[in-house]
Write a structure and sequence with these properties.
The complex is a heterodimer of chains A (283) and B (421).
Chain A: H1 2-12, H2 14-17, E1 21-26, H3 35-40, H4 42-49, E2 58-60, H5 72-89, E3 93-99, H6 102-111, H7 119-125, E4 126-132, H8 140-146, H9 156-160, H10 164-168, H11 171-180, E5 194-199, H12 217-229, H13 240-243, E6 248-252, H14 253-256, H15 275-281
Parallel strand pairs in A: 1-2, 1-3, 3-4, 4-5, 5-6
Helix pairs in contact in A: 4-15, 5-6, 5-7
Chain B: H1 3-15, H2 20-30, E1 59-64, E2 78-81, E3 83-89, H3 90-95, E4 97-100, E5 107-112, E6 127-131, E7 134-135, E8 141-146, H4 147-152, E9 162-166, E10 174-179, E11 185-191, E12 197-203, E13 207-209, E14 213-222, E15 225-226, E16 231-237, E17 243-246, E18 249-250, E19 255-261, E20 273-283, E21 286-299, E22 303-305, E23 310-313, E24 317-326, E25 330-341, E26 347-359, E27 362-371, E28 379-391, E29 396-401
Parallel strand pairs in B: 13-21
Antiparallel strand pairs in B: 1-26, 2-12, 3-11, 4-10, 5-9, 5-11, 6-7, 6-10, 8-9, 12-14, 14-15, 14-19, 16-17, 16-20, 18-19, 20-21, 22-24, 23-24, 24-27, 25-26, 25-28, 28-29
Helix pairs in contact in B: 1-2
Classes of the chains: A alpha/beta (283), B mainly beta (421).
Amino acid sequence: MRRFLTALLLLSAPLLASAATGVAFVHGTGKQTDAYNDYWQSKMVNTVRDGLSNRANYVVINCDFEQYMWDSRAAGCLADQLTSFINSKNITDMVVITHSNGGNVMRWIMSNPTYDSRYPNIISKIRWVNALAPSSAGTPLADAVIAGNVFESALGWLLGYKSDAVRMQQVSWMAYYNSSYLYGTSGRPSLPKGFWAVVGTDVETAIWDGDSYCGGYSLNVGLEVTQAWLNSCSDGFLECSSQSAAGRVWFQDKSRMAGGEPLSHNQSRRACFGLEKILRDDI
Amino acid sequence: MNLSKLLAAALAATLAPVGAHAARDAQADAQAVAGDLAPTALVSNAGKTLRDNPDQQPVSFSWAIEADTKLTPAKPFVSDSREFWTNVDALDLAKGFRFQTTAPGAVIRISPTTSVGSKAAIAPGDISLAIDGRQLPATALTRTATSAQLKAAGLDFAEGTLAFRIDPAEGSGRVALTAKLAAGDYLIHVTEPESATVAKLSAISDTAFTGGDQEARLQLFDGANALPIKRMNGILTAPDGRAFDVDFHTDGKGQALADFALPAKASDVPGLWELHAFVAAEQNGELVMRDVKSAFAVVAPIGRLGSSMQMHDSAQALSFDVPVKAAMGSRFEVRAVLYGTDVDGKQVPLAIGHAADWIDAGNGSVKLSFDHGLLKGANAPFELRQVELYDQSRLAKQEARWNGLPLAGQLDKPRRGTLAD
């Protein structure tokens, strides 16, 4: 309801009558060079673009999100590409769609507007952020990937793990960043613009079930065992509590997906079960 | 509220230099809450900056806080663990590696060490399991996933990793994990998602200063009951790879405490410091193990807030000059929440403001501005609370005052009415 009222307010604003609306797709952990094909895939991006009055007003971000969120190769790169998009298309009203750790990088920009002089202009153009399965409170799986046996091993592995983004998404690390640098979590100031989470609650992988193949069956198989590491509500990578930790929950998967299907962590970035149409209709 | 920290703050106030800061400390410390942070001495050799090119432009930004936002002081984060790690070699695995589980459905990951890699990969068919001497069928290994499948799911475990869950129907107990074809060394990671045996670890402060100290609390529970700790160990690791032993001491009440000094040198590598703890207790005559860790920041104190803030009221904005004392030049940021008085006379949060600028060594200030549009009809008196100072060049929180700092000339003269009064 609040989201609806916000939209109504925006629509009634005279400024929006001449607004150039755009949409930005912000990927999750990883170094992307062709996120359009490798991360989101064409059906997702192109269906969402159908919601724009000018279908050319979109950008698919390609940055190095193996780095800490504040790094010049992460938030700095994101600020570069968003600024270029805003300037080249004269965007005045931007919907940002993030997936997974992309939500943290976006939240870094919105929570730390003075860190980079480009941030305020970006924030001012954002209508809201649709955060698909954001890792707002981290994941125990990041701890599992990083952790070795500190009491029996040489500590080289502590330095050697190549992804600072994974390191950052360990649960106690995100607790620190949420309490010191990031906004939108419980007890903290709200973000300057809305941060609306889409929460994946389960993983279904049955070889006879066609729904398990959406987004790639092989990508979903590993999520079955990783789900066992997490509590009973998870998308195989993130617990629902982490996905819901910042901003507001827009919806949980089964309440809106076709057939009441859940969205695994892999599926929440793909055109699965009508997600792409919901995002399209939101622009 | 942590009494020892408050006492330490009070002691620090008595040891602080006389003059403006001493007066400020006495006033501010009297209003201190748990989670507040204040350096007692600054250093001018904080080491290299952790940013490539800190922005040199002054930047300020403020926005309204949503009306239903409830602001609360941060509490120390408590890490939970239902898991442990251990290293085993091929001989151990061939003979059968034994460990205790406390709940059905344990998830086990076997990762070859990097020196051996995928050549030591173990296939699911090469694993045999027994619980309390009862041999389990091959179907007891469920949800098996290889390193390639885990990587596809976004988890970059070591090459040759095998993960699986023991069928919950097989129960729990003394597990024997055998792999006769094992070769090399392995890291075994056992997680028990359904276990009531939980280790908890918390660092008292989420930010500590170089050369200062930190406290931590370690506990092991079976449900709501604290278990007597039989073995424990602690290690502190810095982002740059330094490691320091940490001694925990049981207090006889089911918990272990550590109070340890931090090194004088900050890390030149970005990231948080981690306190790792191992803890074990006997349950039903068997040793149950848990590894747990917690992260916090260790920062060099190079700046502090000044004695009081000055408020200005112009036609466009309410602004505050926040003095900053810097021991060395850096880009400093001040952030604070603006409170105003609502129609019921209650102080309510209205907006949050950030401002950052480069400040050379010495005394400087940062101006926080709030456009009148953000005041939402609230009246004076206005206050800044949750005032925080950051060294943006090193991502280092320097000071945090939940109740803010005194407003010069305003404390004893609260006024009501509109800003135009």
